[in-house]
Amino acid sequence: MSAVGFIGLGAMGSGMAANLARHLTENGHALHVYNRDLAKSQAFRASNEGLSIVLADSLEQLASSCCIIFTMLSHDAAVKDVMGRLCECFKQQPPMVSGDSPAPQRVLVDCSTVSPETTAAMSDAAEAVGATYVACPVLGR
Question: What is the pTM assigned to this prediction?
Fold first, then answer.
C-alpha cells in the first residue's frame, strides 16, 4: 500500500484525520500529516496516542512520501496554494518505480468546500502532472 497523507488539522480535518489514522493503524500503516502550524500537528499526534501518525515537516516532504493525499482546508485560496505546491512537487519528483512494479498513481482528495471554478482549476493542475484530483467536499461538522 502506498503511504497516505492528510493536510489540514483544523476543527473538521482533525476528526477526519483521526478516523483515517485509526483505520490505517488497524491495518498496519501510518498516516502522514501536515499542518502549516506545527503545534497543531504535534497536538494532533498527542491527542491520538497509540495511533501510527508521522509528522511531515513540510508539504514537500509529505508529497514525496505519499501517493494518496487528503486535504481539508478552509477556503479557495488555501486550496489553490496547497494544491499548487503539491503539483509542483509532483512535477519535480516523479513517482519512484521499483523493479517491474508500475509507478503508483498519485491521488489528491480534496474535502474542502470550494467554488466549482477552483475545483476545475485544481483538477486541471493535477492532471497536468499525472495525478488524479478527487473533489469530495464535506459540509458541516
Answer: 0.91
Q: Where are the domains of the chain?
A: 4-92+104-135
Sequence-ordered alpha helix ranges (H) in the chain: 11-26, 38-47, 59-65, 76-92, 116-128
Average pLDDT, the chain: 91
pLDDT single digits (tens) 21-80: 999 999 999 999 999 999 999 999 999 999 999 999 999 999 999 999 999 999 999 999
Q: Is 64 left (phi over 0), alpha (psi -120 to 50) or beta?
A: alpha
> Is residue 113 over pLDDT 80?
yes
Does residue 69 contact residue 107 with C-beta atoms inside 8 Å? yes
- Contact (CB, 8 A) for 114 and 76: yes
8 A C-beta contact, residue 49 and residue 75: no
Q: Would you tell me how many other CB atoms lie within 10 Å of the CB of residue 91?
A: 13
Q: Is the pLDDT of residue 16 over 50?
A: yes
Among 96, 77, 25, smallest CA distance to 54 is for 25
Q: What is 4-92+104-135's CATH topology? A: Rossmann fold (3.40.50)
Which position has the grid cell 482533525?
Answer: 14
